[in-house]
Amino acid sequence: MLLAGDEFGRSQMGNNNGYCQDSELSWVDWDDLPESAEELRTFTKRLITLRQEHSILRRENWRDGMTITWYNPGGGEPTEEQWADAGSTTIGLPISRDHDDEEAWDDVLILFNPHNGTRPVRSPGSGERLDGRVDHRRSRRWLEEARSLRLRYGETQPRAASRGLSPMSMEAKG
């Protein structure tokens, strides 16, 4: 979720109750926005476009026919220990539904890597090509199709596959 001003680092001087202030603390200064603000705006517009184009990303009812499972870097469901381990940070979220003849996407894989390091990631399933759409670290361009990718620090990668998903395979680099 983005709050007005997040796109250019507006912090409300650390006050999380700025809504009750009528001062510079809560005012939004739209002049002289940094380049990063434009990058976030462009990235957010792309996410909105994807959501508008693909109904699997905009649900009318919670879990209406979709399946959600979290996967750990080893390709299985995270154990209690992995959920509790602060160092266990790379995770995948596949979202699937029954085939829809009117939609191109029946399966989406979103990969998160907040870990301070690179994680090679192979495409899930039987090696079908993934249609990479958004990489917030490269917000100025769309990703190309790939069978594998490197998930760098801080990257969130939504990926779409044309076939059913199986647990993904991720390996930590050396």
UniProtKB/TrEMBL annotation:
Signal peptide (residue range): none
Organism the protein comes from: Rhizobium tibeticum
Protein name, per record: Glycogen debranching enzyme
Record carries keyword Hydrolase: yes
EC number(s) on file: 3.2.1.-
Keyword entries, A-Z: Glycosidase, Hydrolase
Underlying gene: glgX_2
Enzyme class of the recorded protein, top EC level: hydrolase
Domain of life: Bacteria
Region (Disordered): 116-137, 153-174
GO molecular function annotation: hydrolase activity, acting on glycosyl bonds
